[in-house]
Write a structure and sequence with these properties.
- With 202 residues, this protein is α+β, with helices and mostly antiparallel strands.
- The chain has a single domain, classed as Peptide Deformylase (Alpha-Beta Complex).
- Helices cover 32% and strands 25% of the residues.
- The strands form 2 sheets. Strands 1-2-3-6-7 form a 5-stranded antiparallel sheet, sandwiched between helices. Strands 4-5 form a two-stranded antiparallel sheet.
- Helix 2 packs across helix 4.
- The two termini are 23 Å apart.
């Protein structure tokens, strides 16, 4: 999911990470549910999270799911502002999304993009509040609550781990429009990522 505001500094995880290629819509890993993480506290899991943070920063993203770097594990990272400008940075393993009850939830239509659909943005309805329960990389329980744009990010990234992208929430006509946008703009996006990678990646 693309970021909205320029971040002043890289998170420490990104400083330790290596850049990985971002998967693109149509690749099979994006269209199937990811596997639960069962091994916590491992160097491999820590390295994956660090790499995802750097990759997200290079791609100028607000969130990134593991299958977006070709790894089918239930994990995402985020560096995302909410609607009050508060920056939220972290990761969550094996997330479970909780939305408000239908009677109390408010749907907001706002433009949404995806690092795996480079260059395209479309309006997508999402609830204005969301909670994710899961674990950190060491297996400690986490509860993450989001409002506004951060709530959208939590919903977007959890969708990825279920094998869905925001394109699946669009009408056939809007999906076609998004794919056309991607075809027209993806080379510019890839060039921008390459330039940013040259500045940030090891």
């Amino acid at each position: 999911m693309p970021v909205r505001d320029e971040r002043p500094t890289l998170p420490p995880e990104a400083e330790r990470g290596s850049f990985r290629r971002v998967t693109v819509i149509g690749e099979e890993v994006l269209s199937r549910p990811c596997r639960e993480v069962t091994d916590f506290g491992t160097p491999e899991l820590s390295a994956l999270i660090d790499d995802m943070f750097l990759t997200m920063s290079v791609a100028d993203g607000a969130g990134l799911a593991a299958n977006q770097v070709g790894v089918d594990l239930r994990l995402f990272v985020y560096d995302c502002p909410d609607d009050h400008g508060v920056r939220h940075v972290g990761h969550v393993v094996n997330p479970v999304l909780e939305l408000p009850d239908p009677g109390s939830r408010r749907l907001i239509d706002d433009f949404e993009g995806c690092l795996s659909v480079p260059g395209a943005t479309m309006e997508v309805p999402r609830t204005d509040r969301a909670t994710v329960r899961g674990f950190d990389k060491d297996g400690n329980p986490l509860v993450i609550e989001g409002t506004g744009y951060f709530a959208r990010c939590l919903q977007h990234e959890t969708d990825h781990l279920l094998g869905h992208t925001y394109l699946d929430r669009l009408t056939a006509r809007d999906r076609k429009n998004a794919l056309r946008q991607m075809e027209n703009r993806k080379e510019d996006v890839f060039a921008q990522r390459a330039a940013r990678a040259a500045r940030l990646a090891r």
